[in-house]
Amino acid sequence: MTTYSTSMSANVRWLGMTTVAILVVALVILFGRDAGRSVGPALGSVLVLILLVTYLVSTREYAMGEGTLVVRKVMGSKSFELRGASVGRDTLAFQGMTRVFGNGGFFAFDGLFYSGRLGFVRSYARNREHGVVVYLAGGRKLVLSPDEPDAFVTAALAQGAVLAAP
User: Fold this and answer.
1) Other CB atoms closer than 10 Å to residue 91's CB: what's the count?
2) What is the DSSP string of 26-53?
3) With 0-12 CB in 10 A as exposed, 13-18 as middle and 19+ as buried, what is 162?
4) Which residue, among 70, 61, 68, has the nearest Cα to 85 in the 3D structure?
5) How much is the pTM?
6) 61-77 tens-digit pLDDT
7) 3-state class of 2 per DSSP?
8) Which of 36, 148, 154, 156 is deepest in the core (most CB within 10 A)?
9) Going along 76-136, which residue ranges are E strands?
C-alpha cells in the first residue's frame, strides 16, 4: 500500500493549542475555588478524556492499494472501495461546510458535514486547503485532504476510480 500524508493546517494547530490553553486556565481557576475542589477532579477528567478521544479518532494518513482506500486514524482505520468510485481535486470542497456531527477543527475535520454544493459528506481531513472529493459507488461522498492532492488523485485512478466531472 502506498501512503499519503495529511498535515495539520496552521488553523487546526492553533485551534488545538488555544483549546488546551483555555482548558488549563479553566481548570486552574476551578481548582482555586472551594466548589471546584469537589467538582474539579471529575470535570477535569471528563475534559481530558474528551481531548484524548478527539485526538485518537483524528485522521492521520491515507493509504491505497488493491483497489481500496484506507483512512488511517491515530487509533483504527476505515476502508472504502475505489473501484466504481469517482475522484477529483476540489479546491472549494471545504467552503461552506457545516458540521452536523463530528470534530470541526480540533486535531482534524472528521465526521459528518453538510455542504450546500456537495450535500452530506464524510470528512477525513486535517487541512482544508487540499480538498479531494471521492464519490463512492454507493452514493456516499468523502472529503479528504492529502498533502499532495494531484498524486493522490492519480493513485486513486490507478486503483480503479474514474476522474470526477468538474
Assistant:
1) 11
2) HHHHHHTSHHHHHHHHHHHHHHHHHHHH
3) middle
4) 68
5) 0.82
6) 999 999 999 999 999 99
7) strand
8) 156
9) 77-81, 86-89, 98-104, 109-115, 119-125, 132-135
